[in-house]
Amino acid sequence: MDKILVTRSSMPSLEEYTKEIAPVFENHWLTNAGMKHEELTEKLKEYMGVKGLSLVVNGHEALEIALQDMDLPAGGEIITTPYTFHSTTHAIVRSGFKPVFCDIDPVTCTMDVDQLESLITDKTVAIVPVHVYGNVCNDAVIRDIAKRHGLKVMYDAAHTFGEKVGCDASGRPLVGRKGGEDASWVGVGTLGDVSCFSFHATKVFHTIEGGAVCSADTAFTDRIAILRDFGIVDAELVTDIAPNAKMNEFAAAMGLCNLRHLDGEIEKRRLVAERYREALADVEGIRLNPVQEHVQSNYAYFPIFVEEDKYGESRDGLFERLMKHDIYARKYFYPMVTELQCYKSDYDADATPVAKRLSYEVLTIPMYAELSPEDQDRVISVIRREA
Ligand code: T4K
User: Fold this and answer.
1) H or E stretch at 100
2) How far, in Å, from the CA of 151 to the mean position of ligand 1?
3) Cβ–ligand 1 contact at 211 (below 6 Å)
4) φ, ψ for residue 289 (rounded to 5)?
5) What confidence tens digit (pLDDT) does each residue in 212-230 have?
6) Residue (of 124, 101, 104, 127) closest to 114 by Cα position
7) What stretch(es) of the chain map to CATH 3.40.640.10?
8) What is the CATH number of domain 261-383?
9) Which atom belonging to ligand 1 lies closest to the Cα atom of 61?
């Protein structure tokens, strides 16, 4: 029996990719804002409905460089969540800020907006919420709180490429609210002051490795183009102490190919997600990720939450049993950030009890566009204890 992994990168055909990179072989321009890079930048702006976008080498550098661009007071506190891939926290710490951890909403796993304001102090310099699994944060409330305190909001939007959010007639995002009419839809990258995306091979849309910083403030994204290139403005002017985080032409070409097929890939993922939902809805003790109102999802991940007392088996028990059937689910995100070896002596995991509990319950099961119904049935039958 073949192994089933948690995900599988989408790929264009070899012919399509070869055709896309042929001009690169002719012009010998391999990186430093080449023609594929520039073309992808324009196409992504259009697809994502964002004004400013700068490509970078990966999602992590998107976060670090965007923080540098924000020019925040050194050593300040940044409010974020511990229920994320540790890249979010690493970016904050490596940039010289102190993360302050807010707990998460038990349903969407995004920042608990009821706790957020109580964590703001005179040392707070920004808020970095995470749209985890593609579940979009309650932007309207976060935005109101940030505005009241004069703080900037930078979203870790690594999981949300291509998603859209419904807004009311005044243009206010409705996500997080029950009911209400979606008068218009905006790209998720328009939320907050800045949004950072990952285009890693495991993401819905990828450039092998890659990422982007988006903002309505085009001066901000223009400066990212300097910060991703050692702070170089021109051959004799270097304004910033910055890394090399540029996307190369082969990565951009992969992005151009993948973008052509993206809507079809998301539709296939939707069918996989629906099939899981139908098959798992009645399993006692297995809670499914919510279908969020006012969000057009990209179906990035399919997390399930194992409630041991009701399911009769722990998350780890189910994880092991899946493995015996050659199914490799992942525990995204366990251990949660504040329980990782590099952070646990400095932070109290019990300060965010919801995040802690969910990190012990979560299992992200295989989800990708090419997951066949037969393979999906193998996953379902183990979870339903029929295999
Ligand atoms: N913020 C958030 C919230 C994030 O989730 C991430 C990244 C970031 C920021 C930072 O973005 P990047 O700097 O990575 O662009 C993966 C990814 O490496 C990482 O991008 C992702 N989040 C994280 C959640 O997961 P691993 O260590 O679990 O990946 P790995 O190598 O075990 O692969 C998982 C499965 O994917 C494999 O079992 C098979 C499949 N796969 C993997 C690779 C590498 C493929 O099909 N093709 C491939 O090339 O971290």
Assistant:
1) strand 98-101
2) 30
3) yes
4) -60, 145
5) 999 999 999 999 999 999 9
6) 104
7) 14-256
8) 3.90.1150.10
9) 13
